Amino acid sequence: MNHVHHRRLGGVAAIVVAAGLVAVPTTASADTGPMVLGTTAYPQPRISSTGVRTDACDWTATPGWMARTGSDPTLNATVAGDGSGSLSARFEVWDQMTGADSAVFSGVAPAYAGQARINVPGLLDGHSYTWRTWALQGDRTSAPAPDCHFRVDTTSPTVSVASPDFPADGSGGTATKYAGQVGTFVLNAADPAPDGGEASGVACVRYGFDMLGVGGDCTAPGTVRPGADGTLTLQLKVLYWGTNTLNVEVIDDAGNSGRMSYTFYAPSNPNPPKTLGDVDGDGTADILLPDAQGNLQYFGVNAGDTAPSSTIQGNRAPYDGSWAPFQVAHHGWSKSHAPSSDDLFIHKPGDGYLYLYQNVDYGSFTGYMTDAQRSRSCQDDAGATVACPADFASDWSKADQVVAFGPVTDATSPSLLTLEDGNLWLHAGGNFGFGSQKARKLTTTGDWSGYDLIAPGPDASGSLTLWARERADGTLHAYPVPKQANGLFDFSALADPAAGVVASGFTVGAYPTLGSSGDGDGDGAPDLWAVTADRHLVTYSGWSAPKDLGVLR
Asked: Is the bond preceding 308 in cis, omega lying within 30 degrees of 0?
């Protein structure tokens, strides 16, 4: 038999079938005898960098790679006959790298329900192969199916990691940065070629401080392609004080993977930045907003555009899989867990629970929520426990709005301000971490139900301010809450919500969302930010000089 075509990659395709236009017969006629209807190899050869799976049975196709699997590859053929006898298939395999005309493998396998398969042992790492199939019935042999092709790579790629900022444990080096800061990590990936063979080559790497998945293609989320020399330089924030481990996996084009774990020590910062409103520990107050997919985005108040500094996935939100339905309060919270980063309080209007996310990893919140709080009691102006009003809800279900007001009992203890049944309530002096909180009613006249509350946080003297946007006409109000000589706060300005007009034009239609993260421009006064109806993020100096940062994601 003449095998003139087997030595070039991609044999001549005898039949080209347009998908959906030609129906393949399930049996052969008496005139045609046995035939091969289809062929495939298992595992199907792949090209991990593109995610392509291909048997390369067309001379124009680039052959894929077979990786190390722990068992011999299998060749499969779908065959049909005229019913005159049992069916089988003959398989032959040629090594393209030797250039020999003789097959390195030949075998016959019976067909069951039209399917024949055979294992092929002894394939060599780094070699390229062509294979061909014939259908057999009695003494008749079909025309050969088009040649198919694959390459073999059973050698795992390798990867190494080094960091000038966080040297590896045992290296004798000393960290030059602290936990919570961004360090440089240099990855070097390689895919060694076997003697006399070809390697598939490094396709991509994946990395993380969490455990990684196994294998996969480079089209999967979280994979990154290194440079042509296999080098990839990463800028990663180290989330924990103490011992950290960066896990790295490199994947070659055949789908083989190699792994390493880079363990290092990150010292705690003896002088961490302490900026109220800072969630990610970089010393700058943050604006937190959901994106269109429900993920939570962080923007520094001094940002020049709407590229988020980090993003927390929606699956870390309480039970909804999205942050969009929740109010996020953080400005001015206790920094007992990560001294430079705010904790988060999360509430969905109408929900009886308030959720606390303790910030132990500089705003990454990898531990999900740590507390869900439901219980509330009432106190008077002196802090003594008193009976609650008859219409008071002992949970958080009546809280239409929740904002972080700022410390009112000491420099670090948190306080919340809520709007319930048209009145303002202050929550301070209880223990949020243990799920109990004391509420104090601040207003008894006026109606705050038509206002959006904004809490800029304390100024340099510790005095507080409440801002509110009147929803009916877009008027912005400011209500001073000064800290007195005895350390107590004067809430008398909150008696009349219509007082303290400072600006106009912030209508709900033009600016659906308003907020403040404190003094963003460093002039000693708090600043406003807004999201427009077309999802532009705008920052202000005070409540004037708007700066459009662009469209939010």
From this structure: no
